[in-house]
Amino acid sequence: MVDGMGGVFWWMALWGLLGLVLLVLAVVAIFWLVRSMIQPGRPGTDPAEEELRRRYALGEIGREEYLERMTDLRRPPP
């Protein structure tokens, strides 16, 4: 009779562990989705803006030209 109860314990432990893993995966997925919705346009995602930042950092263009071009890039198309 003791052996039968031991098997039930292991099945309960296995299902509990599986539930915990699924819970952790759900929390990570929700965190990832919320983060991607909050920050859809993080700096560095647009290749044109990244190139402009690189050129400004290297001193190839000045501040005024950088700001003017960045404004042009962020302006919606006509």
List its traits.
78 residues; mainly alpha; 2 domains; rod-shaped
Provide a descriptive summary of the structure in words.
This protein is 77% helix and 0% strand. It is built from 3 helices and no strands. It starts with a helix and ends with a helix. The radius of gyration is 27 Å and the shape is rod-shaped. The chain has helices at residues 2-38, 47-57, 63-74. It is mostly helical. It has 2 domains: 1-40; 41-78, no CATH class.
Sheet with the most strands, sense and barrel status? none
Secondary-structure element order, N to C = HHH
Strand content: under 5%
Q: Give the overall shape.
A: rod-shaped
Radius of gyration: 27 Å
- Give the fraction of residues assigned to helices: over 70%
Class from helix and strand fractions? mainly alpha
What is the arithmetic mean of pLDDT?
85
Stretches where pLDDT falls below 50 for ≥5 residues? none
- Count structural domains: 2
- Count of helical stretches: 3
Span of the ends, CA to CA: 79 Å
Secondary structure layout plus pairing:
Layout: H1 2-38, H2 47-57, H3 63-74
Quick recap:
The protein has three helices and no strands.
